[in-house]
Design brief:
Layout lengths: L15 H7 L2 H18 L14 E7 L5 H16 L5 E9 L2 E8 L5 H13 L12 E5 L16 H16 L23 H7 L3 H11 L3 E8 L2 E7 L1
Antiparallel strand pairs: 1-3, 1-4, 2-3, 5-6
Amino acid sequence: MSNLKPSAEHGESHGVLAWMIHNRITPNVMMAVFLLGGLFMATRIKQEVFPEFDLGVVTIRVIYPGSSPEEVEQGIILVVEEAIRGLDGIKEITATASEGMGMVTAELEEGGDQQRVYQDIKQQIDRITTFPLDAEEPEVSLRIIRREVLQIQLYGDTSEWVLRELAEQVRDRLLQDPDVTQVDLIGARQYEVAIEIDQDTLRTYGLTLDQVAQRVRATSVEIPGGTLETQAGDILLRVN
């Protein structure tokens, strides 16, 4: 009498595949759940032409015409670094001194309030009174990435003044939309006031053009008025 081996059907099976073979409904239900979950999450994936990320860098740029890198380092770089070194939210400070210009870069800590740190840095820079006399006003900027959506061009047979007024009206109307966060004017020159004085008038009052320029410079100033803390952030108060 020969010994018969038990077939695989009657033998004991182990493993995930064997369990799925004997429980055919459960794998089908799991597959349906995975498919529906994948389709649902596919509709919620964020798609961007330019990925959104925070650079977290504040740059301070000061023009110092006719100066050497050594003079820029002593008169600009060291003064700026000393003013902002103790501020909260700054991770690292780097500086570059070149001929006629100095630049200080402050890398901000991740997860912090970048606008608050930027305002603190700008306020500290505005308080500096020891810059060289020939140095220009410092430029403080927060380096950010903006996603440009649309460009609108205005043109016509009219003056530049009228075109600028129309562009400002369009900008104000676009900013009323809650989905629009930023609108910039490109190619529009800044307003400028020109003062022309007749020579006879200067002689009458015993003035020179340099004296008039000094008087205008002395009265055209910005006076800091402190900081107003609100729920949306800090607002710097200044009086022109």
